[in-house]
Design a protein that fits this description.
InterPro entries: PfkB_dom (IPR011611), Ribo/fructo_kinase (IPR002139), Ribokinase (IPR011877), Ribokinase-like (IPR029056). Helices cover 36% and strands 23% of the residues. The protein has 298 residues and is an alpha/beta fold. It has a single domain, classed as UDP-N-acetylmuramoyl-L-alanine:D-glutamate ligase (3-Layer(aba) Sandwich). An eight-stranded mixed β-sheet has the order 4-1-9-10-11-12-13-14, with helices on both faces. Strands 3-2-7-8 form a four-stranded mixed β-sheet. β13 and β14 form a beta hairpin. α1 packs across α8, α8 packs antiparallel against α9 and α9 packs across α10.
């Protein structure tokens, strides 16, 4: 079972002709409102890639956005009985600005996520007992992140830490992660903060069009990207990568195969608008992976 701990939020996306300068107002944007939150996105990706059971721990508000979240998880077959509902507090909202190139800028109002506590995790301990893979992001308080990783480590689950958005973490938190998956900018942040890969940990740095670096005790591997003719929206690509990787690891696939599957899935995701509609199904990844292994990865 994959246990995903972290965030759900509603994504309010504006597709803009360009990012305005300070003090400037521009017109011509297109508005869409959809599901978001890194952990929820990762859970959806894992389920669509064949994970037989995915459970989610997060916090939502007692509002329309929260009710829509429960409907999404029900439709996707994600367990949500341990999701915390916080009265009189809004569900997390992310404001996403997408340029014509597909590049995005995101601002987050955490809302209910700030009310997820260490005590909550302790009350959900039965899930940790059943989990084989535990994945955590940083859209929740860092003390909750640290405690979640410690609980997973104590039970022998494989821990996947996706340090997004980047925030200061103690070395003891890093050392318990079996897989550390930052993007380029996050890796730079942690490198400047003194991060060094501990023995036994697999570091996976996603670099967008630069591909993926995998560093473990055996050395370093580089995986070429899978470019698409047209990039529409990169918003959920990182979450799709992490969720797909977790599904592959949970299935028992080796790291190289899991990374390749994750590259394919994230590459496919940037060809469509919005996050949830863009996360591919397993069949699409299988077909594209075969083509890639006969082409760029042969």
């Amino acid at each position: 079972m994959i246990l995903v701990i972290g965030s759900y939020g509603t994504g309010i996306t504006m597709r803009v002709p360009r990012i305005p300068e300070s003090g400037e107002t521009i017109s011509g944007a297109q508005l869409s409102i959809g599901y978001g939150g890194k952990s929820s996105n990762q859970a959806v990706a894992a389920r669509r890639q064949g994970a037989s059971r995915v459970e989610l721990i997060t916090a939502i508000g007692d509002d329309a956005f929260g009710r829509e979240a429960r409907q999404l998880w029900n439709d996707e077959g994600i367990g949500f009985q341990f999701v915390k509902t916080v009265p009189e507090v809004s569900t997390m909202v992310g404001g996403i600005f997408v340029e014509p190139s597909g590049e995005n800028r995101i601002v987050i109002a955490p809302g209910a996520l700030e009310h997820l506590t260490v005590k909550d995790l302790e009350s959900f301990s039965e899930l940790f007992d059943q989990a084989s893979v535990v994945v955590v992001c940083l859209e929740i308080p860092t003390d909750v992140v640290a405690h979640a990783i410690a609980m997973a480590d104590e039970r022998g689950a494989r821990v996947v830490l996706n340090p997004a958005p980047a925030a200061p973490l103690d070395e003891s938190v890093f050392s318990k992660a079996d897989f550390f998956i930052p993007n380029e900018s996050e890796f730079e942040f942690y490198s400047k903060s003194g991060y060094e890969r501990p023995p036994g940990q697999t570091l996976i740095v996603t670099q967008g069009s630069g591909g993926v670096r995998v560093i473990d005790d055996a050395g370093e591997q580089r995986f070429a990207p899978l470019p698409q003719e047209k990039v529409v929206d990169t918003t959920g690509a990182g979450d799709t990568f992490v969720g797909t990787f977790c599904a592959a690891i949970d299935e028992g696939l080796n790291v190289s195969t899991a990374v390749k599957r994750a590259i394919v899935a994230s590459s496919l995701s940037v060809t469509k608008n919005e996050v949830i509609p863009a996360i591919p199904e397993r069949e699409a990844v299988d077909a594209e992976l075969k083509n890639a292994e006969e082409g760029i990865w042969k």
